[in-house]
Amino acid sequence: MQFQELIGQQAVARRVLEAIQQNRLPHALMLTGPEGVGKLAFANAIAQYVNCLKPGPADSCGSCSQCRKIRKGLHPDLKFILPIISKKEGGRQLLSADYYQEFRQAFFQHPYMSSGQWQRMLGGENKQLMIGVHEIREMKQQIFLKAFEGRYKVLLVWQAELINRQGANAFLKLLEEPPDQTLIIMTCSDPSRLLSTINSRCQQIRLGRVGAEEIQAYLQKQHQLSQEQAAQVATIAEGSIANALEFIEESNIALKTLYVEWLRAIYTGNYPKMSAQTEKICKENKEYQKLFLVLAIKKMRDSLLYHLGVEQLALLTEEEKAFQQNFSKLVDATKVERITRALEESRRQIMGNANAQMVFSALSIQIYSILRAA
Q1: Which residue, of 74, 95, 193, 211, has the greatest Cβ tally within 10 A?
Q2: pLDDT by residue (tens digit) across 79-106?
Q3: Contact, 342 vs 331, CB < 8 A?
Q4: For residue 117, what are the contacts with CB-CB under 8 A and spacing of at least 6?
Q5: What pLDDT, on a 0 to 100 scale, did the predictor assign at position 229?
Q6: CATH code for the domain of 297
Q7: Cβ–Cβ contacts within 10 Å for residue 116, how many?
Q8: How many domains does the chain have?
Q9: Best mean pLDDT range from 30-44, 106-120, 320-334, 338-352
Q10: Interstrand relation of 92-93 and 88-89 (parallel, antiparallel or unpaired)
Q11: Is there a single domain that holds both residue 359 and residue 216?
């Protein structure tokens, strides 16, 4: 991937390019930032640039043999450590290399693939992704081999915060004594979950949220959304390309319908239906639940716009307008603020791996109480 293909992040790219060109690139980088902003795509662009045979001042050439191989995920000196579901087969612990072909086909076609999409590909929606010590030990054996054809051997670690304790200790030794001409690039959404000693041995580069206008332009150009549709998704996506793509996936078109049915069950006090809608949400994986809450926060703000008589500021479909015309009569600024706080707290709990059934059941009751308050 080339830097020019990244959505946003161009200022960060210029700083990284300057460091490479001045030979100031450390052996270990950690790309941090919110989920879905393109950290792994950015890491791949670095890998392509440092191995490019004809690099320019602003990007790799994109056409030499090294660029072509890296672009397809076929370069022998580009290695990935991926989070997977711990599993044995034939008495052997499976490693991310066993899933690399599936990953390669998905990532190099869709470089903003989310961890939730990867988890669904592995068939483990309700299981935890992790990077275990077996993974690190196997990679250490490979990374100390001499580069086959590139200037650098590059190790990309996706979601480094998912390395378990044993794996983290083994990985720390690799960071302390890296082989020559080796570049280790980790992506991490939450560095606080890593050992402090790992954090201290990496130069951190933070990628910020992508602007709504950039997301909108990308969705219109690459996914043929109308201007109105792209604008709606971009405002909900919270600066995350992965969120935006999740919203337009066929499987997630039902998000808005589920939100409306859930909220309707709450404000009518229909407990059996409320419980049924909550159950639907809880059957989905954590990424879906987070997206649902992001959508709910945005739609609650739309309700306030309707209540204040400035509904033209809300980008809504005709079906949503019909719902908001009725629901907005039940809320005022204070109620919207309280419900929004409850939604944000629930999102924080889901991100912290709280029990989804307990979170959404409590949230439903809390919203009902707020709506019924005088």
Answers
A1: 95
A2: 999 999 988 888 889 999 999 999 999 9
A3: no
A4: 106, 110, 242, 246, 287
A5: 78
A6: 1.20.272
A7: 23
A8: 3
A9: 30-44
A10: antiparallel
A11: no
SS3 186: strand
Contact 181, 169 (CB under 8 A): no
Q: Is residue 245 part of a domain?
A: no
Asked if 192 and 313 sit in the same domain, the reply is: no
3-state class of 339 per DSSP?
helix
Q: Are 83 and 130 in contact (CB under 8 A)?
A: yes
User: 178 and 301, same structural domain?
Assistant: no
Burial of 144 by CB count in 10 Å (0-12 exposed, 13-18 middle, 19+ buried)? middle
Which helix (H) or strand (E) covers residue 41, if one does? helix 39-51
pLDDT tens digits, residue range 287-328?
788 888 988 888 888 888 887 877 666 666 666 777 887 788
Reported as type and span, the H/E element at residue 183 is: strand 182-188
Final residue in a domain of this structure, among 154, 184, 206:
206
- Under a CB-based contact definition with an 8 Å cutoff, are residues 51 and 75 in contact? yes
d(CA 39, CA 12): 11
What integer pLDDT is reported at residue 325 of this predicted model? Answer: 78
CA distance 267 to 261: 10
Whether 208 contacts 11, CB under 8 Å: no
Query: Residue 56 pLDDT > 90, yes or no?
Result: yes
Q: Is residue 180 part of a domain?
A: yes
CB-based contact 213:184 (threshold 8 Å) = no
Take residue 247 and report the two structure tokens written for it.
């919203």
The SS3 of residue 346 is helix
What is residue 368's predicted lDDT score, i.e. its pLDDT?
A: 93
Residues 158 and 83: beta-carbon distance below 8 Å: yes
Residue with tokens 């005022």: 332
Q: Other C-beta atoms within 10 Å of 26: how many?
A: 12
Please give the residue range of the domain that contains residue 217.
Answer: 211-239
Residues 191 and 217 in one domain: no
Q: Is the pLDDT of residue 359 over 90?
A: yes
Residue 110 falls inside a structural domain: yes
